[in-house]
Amino acid sequence: MYPTRKALWLLVVSGVGPLAVPFAGIPYMMGWLLPLAVVAVIISDRMLGTQLRFAVRRRVAKVLSVGAKNKVELVLKNLNAFALHLSFIDEAPQPGSVDEEQMSVHLSPGQQGKVVYWYTPKRRGRYTFGHIRLQTRSRLGFWFVQRSVADFAEVQVYPDIEAISQFELLAQTNSLSELGYLNTRVKGDGHEFERMRDYRSGDEPRKVDWKTTARLNRLIVREMGQDRNQNVLFMIDMGRLMQQTTDGLSHFDYALNTAIILGHIAQKKGDNIGAVLFSDKVKKYVPLRKGRGAVDALIMAAYDMEPEPVATNYSHAFKHVMANVNKRSLLLLMTHMGKGEEQRLIRTYASYLGRQHLPLCLFFKEPALERAVRNVPHSTKEAFEVAAAADLMMDRTESLSRLQHAKVLALDALPGQYSATAINNYLDIKARNLL
């Protein structure tokens, strides 16, 4: 608690009184009445005007999404017989950011108010909201009053589960192109019978069911759906290269978010999903299962996992798959393209597993490398830098070609396009019955 500028100015102005006594011809003691009265009022405001009563509580969901804006509400009530102007700061967990550091609200006597702000966590795990620190003025405005309210709230920061809701909303409005998803034809290319329906302009003649057409005396088309009960296993790298960040999120987070969204899509299509999370050894294994519970199991297994500063051991991960996954599956490996020996291991194991499964290697492109290649050099040094970047890009292209030559599906994508690339290829694989 400390005096306001209003109190200090009033003290300065009232202090002129004793100095004017010799010139005004008034008794000496009369000159001190005004300063003493001001001091008395300020002190009484300190003793009585700072006994403020208010209530504050925080409303925040128990589960938050990393890298997404999560809503936080502060509900405040003025329990005094006079108005209050409250400024406050909420102690949000770190690492994270809020859209507004300091907030304020004006409350009439007995009024309840609500302030909403948005908190963006930068890392998954279990965290706690701390104190709510408030500041207001005393009743007469001569003192700043500071209070700290302990309103601890434990939250769990999960991968970006909000992206699932966004995907479903856009899917309902046929606006998936806004997220980068292509319109992939999924009807009529599968092996499982889906339904009979009336012929529509543009349907292929070979899909007309002639027996039913003859019986009903109108053109009827046999529509085939996609095969169901197939397996999608996510192999997510947790090694040191996945610690790299883009737009505040680690590449491991991008891979994990991709697995959750794609897992949601796959279970909607009746497929089983599972995951292997690995670095120098297998850290978590989520067995293949069906339904919404499969996505929940993946989220629960990975929400507090972080990439580690160790070299990735691909041998352990692939051997784990060989030992635990017998039915043919889409193996989606999400990783960085490492050095020559790591590339050789991926190529060898993926090619071997390709006899039974369908491996798909999705590598992260390096944003800095992509920018460097596009730079226009203005000096000899910059020309060498662009040439070096071009050589690295050529090496990446050759590595992808070697994998594809070994009959392994291999792609790379920038972090911001990672989910769209994975989903588009999954839908294409389903449509072409490659699995």
Q: Could you explain how this protein is built, in words?
A:
29% of the residues are buried. The protein is α/β, with parallel strands linked by helices and 435 residues long. It contains twelve helices and 20 strands. It folds into four domains: 2-48; 55-158, Immunoglobulins (Immunoglobulin-like, Sandwich), CATH 2.60.40; 162-168 and 175-184 and 228-431, von Willebrand factor, type A domain (Rossmann fold), CATH 3.40.50.410; 187-225, no CATH class. The N and C termini lie far apart (69 Å). Strands 1, 3, 5, 7, 9 and 10 form a six-stranded mixed beta sheet that branches. The chain has a six-stranded mixed beta sheet with strand order 17-16-13-18-19-20, with helices on both faces.
Give keywords.
about 425 residues, alpha/beta, Immunoglobulin-like, Rossmann fold, 4 domains, six-stranded mixed sheet, 20 strands, about 35% helix, about 30% strand
Give a summary of the structure in a few sentences.
The protein has 435 residues and is an alpha/beta fold. The chain is 36% helix and 31% strand. The chain has four domains: 2-48; 55-158, Immunoglobulins (Immunoglobulin-like, Sandwich); 162-168 and 175-184 and 228-431, von Willebrand factor, type A domain (Rossmann fold, 3-Layer(aba) Sandwich); 187-225, no CATH class.
Helix and strand topology:
Blueprint (H helix, E strand, L loop, with lengths): L1 E2 L1 H10 L1 H9 L8 H16 L5 E7 L2 E3 L4 E9 L5 E7 L5 E3 L4 E5 L4 E10 L3 E13 L5 E16 L3 H11 L19 E7 L11 H7 L3 E6 L5 E7 L7 E2 L2 E2 H18 L3 E7 L3 E8 L2 H11 L11 H11 L4 E7 L4 H14 L4 E7 L2 H8 L5 H26 L3 E5 L4 H14 L4
Parallel strand pairs: 3-10, 13-16, 13-18, 18-19, 19-20
Antiparallel strand pairs: 1-10, 2-4, 4-8, 5-7, 5-9, 6-8, 9-10, 11-12, 14-15, 16-17
Helix pairs in contact: 1-3, 6-7, 6-12, 8-9, 10-11
